[in-house]
Amino acid sequence: MPEAARTGAAKAGEAPRSVDLALQGGGSHGAFTWGVLDALLEDGRIVPDGVSGTSAGAMNAVVLAHGLARARHDGLKGQDVHEAGRKALKRFWENVGLLGNFSTGLPLPAAQAVASWFSQWISPAQANPLGVNPLRRLLLDQVDFELLDTPQAMKVFVCATNVRTGVGEVFSGKRLTVDAVMASACLPTMFKPVEIEGELYWDGGYSGNPALYPLIYNTRSNDVVLVQINPVAVPFKADANAQDIMERVNEITFNAPLLAEFRAIEFVARLLDEGRLDPGRYKKMLLHRVDGGAALHGYGSASKMRADIVFLHQLFEIGRRMGQRWIKTHFRNLGVRGTAIDSP
C-alpha cells in the first residue's frame, strides 16, 4: 500500500473510532458523498459500524458495505479493508460516469424545464413502460446482497416510502435487495413505483433522508456522521423565479424528516444529561455532520441529473476536501460531544 494511504492511525498511533454513517440522497450529487467516504476511509482511524442511506445514499451504502465485507471475507485486515472500500466506491461511480457520458441533450436549465413539463402530462408508466434503470444492472454486477447479511458486513439500512401509507420503511438483513435500493431511489416523476412484497414504494427521501433511528437501536456506536447533500439554510428572495421556488421547496421537503429526527435525538440527549432518563434504557447519540449543502447549492437541482465522469469527479474532489476538513476539525470530538451544529 502506498505510504500516502497510511494516514491517521497508521501514523499517529491513535485508537480507531467506531462510527455510524448516515448518507443523504441527491442524485448524481451522491458523488460528493463518495468523496467524503474516500477521505474517511483513507484516514484509517474511522471504522464504520453501521450505515443508513437513502436514494443515492443507499447506493453508496450498499457499495461501501459490500466492498468492506468482501475484503474481510477474503482475509484482508486493517487499512487494506478500507482500501477495498475505496476501490469499490470508485468502481461504482466511474461506471455511473461511463453511463452518463452517453447521455446528451439540452443544457441543464432547459432540460429541467422540459422534464418538468413532460412529467405533468406523461407518467413514468407511459414514458418508460418497461421500467428500465441502468443503475440496477450496475448494482447487480458489483454487489452480492447475500454477503450483506453475513457477519463480515456492517449493518446496512435503506429507506423507501410506502406509496399507500406514506410511511417510510427501512430494509435491512434478508429484506435488503436490489429492489429495496431501487425503491429508495425511485423518483415518482421518473420511474414507476417499485413493488416489494405486494406494496409499492417511491423514493425514501420523502420519509427519511436518511433514517437515523435504525442506527440508534441496531448498532454499538454512539457517534453518527451524517453526510448531508441538501442545504438546510440558504439565502432566498421574495421575487424568486418559479425554478428557484421549486428547488427550495424540494430542499425543504427532503430535509424535513431528517431535521425531525435530529430534534428528537437532541431532546433525548438533553434529558439524559439532566438525569431525567435512565441511561440503561436510552442511548445517547452524538451527531456529526459533513455538510455539502452550501458547496453544492450553486450547481442547482438540475445538476443532480448530470452524471458525466468529469462532473462526478468534480463532486468527488469537493467531497474529499470537505471530508478531510471535517476530520481535521472534529475527529477529536468523536465519543466526546456532538458537532452537527458547528460542523463545516
From TrEMBL:
It comes from the Bacteria. Residues 21-216 form the PNPLA domain. The active site is at S55, D203. A motif (GXGXXG) lies at residues 25-30. It holds the Pfam family Patatin. A motif (DGA/G) lies at residues 203-205. A motif (GXSXG) lies at residues 53-57. Keywords: Hydrolase, Lipid degradation, Lipid metabolism. This is Patatin-like phospholipase family protein. It comes from Ottowia pentelensis. The lineage of its organism: Bacteria, Pseudomonadati, Pseudomonadota, Betaproteobacteria, Burkholderiales.
